[in-house]
């Protein structure tokens, strides 16, 4: 981040028990530290004072992202958009980006904390110890990549054996008010399974982790879900400390090599 001039005239103390100023989603401290406190819609913008941008992976002003510092390996935005979007902080001085994990929600304890940096930044989504330093994320950036091996091995079984069997069950099932929830999430664990093993898993294992068993009504909903919408193929999950951007703030909308 850039070196900034702290606003002593308008500083506050009480909220963080440290002298600070808050500018929408960013909090600056008298010590030269800075943290991202929020990534809500109104907080997503370029903060020129610090050279930091808060953005989501689906925003039009999110710059191209790369997996390596040399910016030779693009990171497709689709790897960040599974199930919605990923909130990111982008340091245009250090040319890095990282995922912003959400702070506490209700009584649930946030596993992504930075307690070793002091209680004043206990709820930071991202932290900088000072100017011209690398940021410290409060967790790794999650990437959801396609799994070619799984698709090659499992998709033919799903299409030729599992889906026809489930569709036949759906035709024979008693009509009811169906619970609609989109495509059924196929599992990576099916990689070495036969069609009968996959069908048995579908009809006995709840999709939601808080359920202990699949009741009869829930089973009928699962059958309807698959027969109507099909499967959502799983992706391989990997984690990185940082993604990278090419150039500085002036290259915000340009790909590498573009004039």
List the helices and strands and how they pair.
Elements lengths: L19 E4 L2 E4 L4 E3 L9 E2 L4 E5 L30 E5 L4 E4 L26 E3 L7 E2 L3 E5 L2 H25 L11 E2 L9 H10 L11 H14 L1 E2 L3 E5 L2 E2 L15
Parallel strand pairs: 11-12
Antiparallel strand pairs: 1-2, 2-3, 3-8, 4-5, 5-6, 6-7, 7-14, 8-9, 10-13
Helix pairs in contact: 1-2, 1-3
Structural description of this entry:
It contains 3 helices and 14 strands. The radius of gyration is 23 Å and the shape is elongated. Helix content is 19%, strand content 19%. The protein has helices at 148-172, 195-204, 216-229, and strands at 20-23, 26-29, 34-36, 46-47, 52-56, 87-91, 96-99, 126-128, 136-137, 141-145, 184-185, 231-232, 236-240, 243-244. The chain is an alpha+beta fold and 259 residues long. It has 2 domains: 8-145 and 240-251, no CATH class; 148-234, no CATH class. Helix 1 (148-172) packs across helix 3 (216-229). A 5-stranded antiparallel β-sheet has the order 1-2-3-8-9, with no helix packed on it. A hairpin with a 7-residue loop joins strand 8 (126-128) and strand 9 (136-137).
């Amino acid at each position: 981040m850039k070196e900034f001039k702290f606003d002593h005239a308008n500083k506050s103390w009480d909220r963080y028990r440290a002298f600070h100023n808050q500018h929408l989603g960013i909090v600056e401290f008298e010590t030269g530290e800075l943290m991202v406190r929020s990534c809500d819609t109104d907080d997503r913008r370029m903060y020129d004072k610090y050279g930091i941008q808060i953005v989501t992976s689906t925003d039009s002003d999110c710059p191209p992202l790369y997996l390596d510092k040399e910016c030779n390996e693009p990171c497709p935005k689709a790897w960040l958009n599974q199930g919605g979007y990923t909130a990111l902080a982008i340091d245009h001085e250090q040319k890095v980006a990282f995922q912003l994990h959400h702070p506490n929600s209700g009584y649930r304890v946030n596993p992504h904390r930075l307690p070793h940096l002091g209680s004043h930044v206990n709820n930071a989504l991202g932290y900088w110890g000072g100017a011209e330093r690398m940021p410290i994320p409060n967790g790794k950036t999650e990437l959801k990549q396609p799994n070619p091996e799984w698709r090659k091995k499992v998709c033919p079984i799903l299409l030729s054996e599992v889906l026809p069997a489930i569709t036949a069950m759906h035709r024979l099932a008693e009509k009811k008010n169906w619970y609609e929830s989109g495509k059924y999430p196929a599992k990576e664990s099916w990689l070495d399974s036969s069609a009968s093993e996959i069908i048995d898993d579908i009809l006995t294992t709840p999709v939601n982790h808080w359920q202990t068993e699949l009741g009869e009504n829930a089973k009928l909903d699962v059958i309807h879900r698959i027969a109507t919408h099909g499967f959502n193929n799983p992706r391989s999950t990997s984690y990185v400390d940082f993604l990278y951007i090419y150039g500085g703030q002036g290259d915000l909308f340009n790909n590498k090599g573009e004039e």
